[in-house]
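Annex B. Sample input.
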Amino acid sequence: MIRAGHGDVKADLVISSGRLINVATAEIYAAEVAIKDGHVVAIGDVEHCKGPDTRFHDANGRYLAPGMIDGHLHVERSKLSVSSFAELVVAYGTTSVVSGLDQILVVSGLEGVRHFLDEANAGPMTIHWGAPCKTPYTMPRSTVNHYFGPDDHRATHEWPECIGIWETVREFIQEEDDDVIEALEIARRHKLPVFGCSPMCKGSKLAGYASAGIRLDHESYDVTEALEKMRNGMFILIRESSISHFLDENIQLATKYIPQADHRISLCTDDDQRLEENGDQEHGIGIWREGRGRPVDLTEGGGKTARQDRPTRRGTGFFGRCLQSHPRPWRRKEVKKEHRDLSVRRQCSLLSLGRPSLHITRAAKARKICGSWKSSMGSSWKRHDMARGICPAICSGKGINAVVIVCAG
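Annex B, continued. Sample output.
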């Protein structure tokens, strides 16, 4: 990657004539993007990266944006495999998620989580794994197949996917649960952050909770609670799930109360069962757009979550490994028999910017499993090498034209 960035090794692909949404500086400007082996190696003037074998794609003035990061959700609650879940959300721009896989842990233990992460690593969506403070989240301990405790923290904090401790429930801190306190100490020795779960936590309870080193919280029932947590040094994830609707209320942090601190606010679903209709974070992004009004705000959420959760990235700034081909989720009835061996055009809604048209770069096939249609690619779904081509989502509508070339984390 270093030699490709210097131009000593030429890029596989250069995207030109695009408008780059830079979430690191909150700017939108004309820039080219150079990609080598699926990684962004240069942005801006990339003339030095071009060679005789470099492929070129004309973005024709559309936006280039990194993918969104869902800051907190339970992937397994979708009842889908990782590959199938990725098919639904990646096409809408969510390319990385932060998840604890705690419901996999209590059934299948570390072996089940390792299998889940390995499947994700073979696909287009990145899982940044938060090791649960302990599972199950009960006092006293309830009966499950696998108890996740301090010994498991020692074994997993070296995993490359582990980015910290997940779901640190307020009651565990308040009652000074021995296993949770030990897990926090293990995390500190590994220099990993601690993420919270503290609804209705204010006053002295919040002071004690924050003193345990909780870095981030995703459970605030109203804007005053979220504001008090921010004033105590926490990052805030605004949750908008299928059941708990906190976005309309808590978005006031950025639009009314402390817009100057909006870099400490991001979005999560936790959990949205309307994936096929809403595309994971799409509903929240639509509200964010109405409240803020600038195109850059639509994609800043991913960069903010990256700063809060500290997932490791490679490449140029927040754009490392960000341009990836990906297939689009589909329904069997949409595929005509004569098109089985051709690229298939799909329609979906993307970040409320308009109606995108995605082109699948390989034939679409399906089989029926348990009454629902699922891609036959399954766990064999591999990352596409950028040298084989890109799969842009080309949007137009509401005065905005956008190409979202999504990232894999």
